[in-house]
Design brief:
Layout: E1 2-4, H1 10-17, H2 33-48, E2 53-58, E3 64-74, E4 77-84, H3 93-107, E5 113-119, H4 123-131, E6 136-137, H5 143-149, E7 156-162, H6 163-172
Parallel strand pairs: 4-5
Antiparallel strand pairs: 1-2, 2-3, 3-4, 5-7, 6-7
Helix pairs in contact: 1-2
């Protein structure tokens, strides 16, 4: 479902990223494939320095379909940025990617909180964030951060995902078992 960023995925990701329903909401925009390749190389190097955590989202056949990132890492916290190619909207990949990424961040990499800044005009992302049972609408609980994000213009809503709330949710979610059926010879 997730893998570390790889330059080999750039062509497929670039083609998905430039769709007009996706491009406005991508943090690191690239006008050309070569620029996207360069930005991906910078992202890989930034992860090696501990400044970012970035993964490619894969479909069930291993094809790259988007990215999920933790930007601006400071004090065991960072900002989530994710995008999926338009053909993959509404198919459940966003939730699967977030679950896998959050598990890695919180339980393997020592992250304590994740912030999500969501443009007020991005209704799709806002509704997706509201559905997550472990998010806190943080415009009023993190007022200094909210005001910093909106210093020039009132653009963003702020959500917070604390590790303890995510962990509580993880412990409560039901386990799903698949029943193996034996085939007769």
């Amino acid at each position: 479902m997730l893998k570390k960023r790889d330059l080999n995925d750039c062509q497929a990701l670039y083609e998905l990223m430039v769709h007009p329903d996706v491009f406005p909401f991508v943090r690191h925009k690239a006008a050309t494939y070569e620029e996207f390749l360069f930005l991906t190389k910078q992202t890989i190097e930034a992860e090696e320095r501990g400044e970012i955590i970035s993964r490619t989202i894969l479909d069930e056949w291993g094809n790259p379909i988007g990215t999920i990132n933790l930007f601006d890492i400071q004090d065991q916290a960072g900002f989530l940025g994710t995008w999926l190619g338009k053909p993959y909207h509404g198919l459940g990949y966003n939730k699967l990617a977030k679950d896998a990424f959050f598990d890695e961040l919180f339980f393997e990499l020592g992250i304590e909180r994740i912030f999500m800044r969501i443009r007020k005009v991005n209704v799709r992302s806002y509704k997706a964030a509201e559905k997550l049972p472990y998010t806190i609408f943080a415009n009023e609980t993190r007022t200094s951060l909210y005001e910093e994000l909106n210093a020039k213009e009132d653009i963003y809503n702020l959500f917070e995902i604390p590790k303890d709330l995510y962990n509580l949710h993880s412990m409560r979610k039901p386990y799903s078992f698949q029943e193996d059926h034996l085939k007769e010879a």
